[in-house]
């Protein structure tokens, strides 16, 4: 897995460099290069992956005592071989992983990869896409890794953002600290989320052990969750929330039916014909609430009552915006 991660880093950091504008004279004197064939490109790709694997082999050997399960280790070795052979499931697994992104100093604190592509990956023992479920050797598993800011560095950033310290007090790294936006009130959001695509034979504990090999000791790394799409468990909080939504939907449905039944039963719609329970249900009626919401008649105090509801909705939206959205918008805004 370390080979795959390092390959992921090298591919992510590699970006084609935009060539400088050449003088017209030099453009005229250049000779055209014959485009390479598909076979030649395939051979060079295999050579590149093979050379990266050989370059990382000494580091892998030095850390071969890492606590990884046997099934996970064997699958990782197989993936390394499949990558050199350009097998499609291995390539898709590497492609589904998050790549190093740009704009870290502008608030880009997440590279999530491709969740759907990762879960759709399936491979047999030969490294090809299996034709049946019984031939499957492993399938994709999507994991989220959190890289937190070093506590001392985050404290220095927050002190600078709140005006308690000057960036010159932190040495050379102070020039970087002053470029990070909104550290004074959004420091708790400074967690870098990374999407990792693993074979299903590896567990979160295996990924934690692999993360221990990353040579960046001052950045805390942890596995938030892993899922392969095979089973989705609902926790108690989700069950309560879904129960409340189902109860509310039942009230809306029953209230709308009761409201319609009252209108059909009575030629003249009379509020006094309702009992307390029917009146309670009608309070949830879609028809009744829509009619009241769109009513523009003035009451005795010469007020349009629907405006009061708009005031309430506007206040709720302002509170939600300042609580949940403003910190993120401030992170992504330029100075």
From TrEMBL:
Residues 69-233 form the Nose resistant-to-fluoxetine protein N-terminal domain. This is Nose resistant-to-fluoxetine protein N-terminal domain-containing protein. The chain crosses the membrane at residues 236-258, 310-332. Keywords: Membrane, Signal, Transmembrane, Transmembrane helix. The keyword Protein transport does not apply. Residues 1-19 form the signal peptide. It comes from Araneus ventricosus. It holds the Pfam family NRF.
């Amino acid at each position: 897995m370390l080979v795959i991660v390092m390959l992921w880093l090298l591919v992510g950091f590699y970006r084609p460099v935009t060539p400088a504008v050449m003088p017209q004279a030099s453009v005229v004197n250049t000779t055209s290069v014959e485009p390479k064939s598909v076979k030649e490109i395939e051979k060079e790709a295999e050579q590149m992956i093979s050379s990266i694997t050989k370059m990382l082999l000494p580091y892998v050997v030095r850390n071969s005592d890492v606590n990884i399960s046997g099934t996970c280790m064997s699958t990782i070795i197989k993936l390394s071989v499949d990558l050199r052979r350009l097998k499609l499931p291995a390539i898709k697994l590497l492609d589904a992983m998050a790549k190093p992104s740009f704009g870290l100093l502008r608030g880009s604190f997440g590279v999530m990869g491709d969740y759907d592509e990762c879960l759709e990956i399936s491979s047999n023992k030969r490294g090809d896409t299996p034709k049946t479920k019984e031939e499957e050797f492993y399938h994709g598993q999507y994991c989220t890794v959190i890289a937190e800011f070093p506590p001392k560095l985050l404290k220095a950033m927050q002190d600078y953002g709140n005006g308690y310290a000057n960036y010159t007090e932190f040495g050379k790294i102070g020039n970087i600290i002053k470029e990070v936006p909104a550290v004074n009130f959004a420091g708790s959001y400074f967690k870098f989320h990374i999407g990792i695509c693993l074979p299903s034979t590896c567990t979160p504990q295996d990924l934690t052990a692999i993360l221990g090999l990353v040579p960046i000791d001052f950045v805390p790394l942890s596995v938030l969750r892993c899922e392969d799409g095979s089973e989705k468990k609902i926790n108690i909080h989700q069950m309560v929330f879904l129960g409340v939504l189902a109860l509310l939907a039942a009230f809306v449905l029953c209230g709308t039916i009761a409201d319609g039944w009252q209108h059909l039963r009575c030629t003249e719609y009379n509020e006094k014909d309702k009992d307390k329970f029917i009146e309670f249900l009608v309070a949830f009626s879609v028809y009744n609430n829509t009619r009241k919401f769109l009513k523009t008649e003035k009451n005795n105090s010469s007020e349009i009552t629907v405006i009061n509801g708009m005031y309430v909705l506007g206040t709720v939206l302002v509170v939600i915006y300042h609580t949940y959205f403003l910190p993120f918008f401030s992170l992504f805004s330029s100075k």
